[in-house]
Amino acid sequence: MKKIVALLIMLSTSLAYSQIIIRFGLGEQDGNGIIFKKNKEQIEGEVHFPKLSDNKVKIKVGNQNEKIMSADIDSIQILDAKKKLAYTFVWVKTKEFKSKGTDFKIKEEGWILLMKKGKLSLYIGGDEYGVKKDSMRVFSAIKIYLKKKEEDYPIWVSMAIPDYSSYGGVNSIFKMYGPYYFKDNPEIVKKIKNKEYKSKDIEEVVDYYNLKVK
Hints:
This protein has helices at 167-181, 186-193, 202-212, and strands at residues 9-12, 19-22, 30-37, 42-48, 56-61, 64-69, 73-79, 85-97, 104-116, 120-125, 128-132, 135-139, 142-148, 155-160. By secondary structure, the protein is α+β, with helices and mostly antiparallel strands. The strands form three sheets. It has a five-stranded mixed β-barrel with strand order 8-9-10-13-14. Strands 1-2 form a two-stranded antiparallel ribbon. Strand 7 and strand 8 form a beta hairpin. Helix 1 (167-181) runs antiparallel to helix 2 (186-193). The protein is elongated, with a radius of gyration of 17 Å. The two termini are 24 Å apart.
């Protein structure tokens, strides 16, 4: 189990860097990247990491600053110093459970960060992002989304908040919605209900699902 301490949540990732760190202190909020537009055009330059609700994305190409409508963008890839993929932002609709997990409400498009891609993919959505010492940082509360390959949109299942006093409420969200989301896997549901899997263990759950579920 991962250890959660005040103002620090560590979520290991299979992407280029070894971990994502969520805590106060953003670091750099721009990085070399590529914007992939829906019309197949690609624009490479210095990208300002988009907030969840940004309807425009800023990019600097050479000495020119541009703003591109989010609705015209499919995804944004942030590159590391060796021009390798480090992080991917996607502009997508999301879903939230209605009461008791019996139905969904669809939320309008927003920018979320793809953390792991597989049979079960993991996303997070936050208000501010920054990179410092080769790791992404997210400021304040974030929403955690999951998406199975057969699902149309990522679904909100939990949250992460850099304040230890708030984790009771965070775990209650996962305990409420987790069993509905993982109803296709009784073992995961059992562990959520028995508190063996909590919100802080979300990546462990994703890894287990991708390894065990056919």
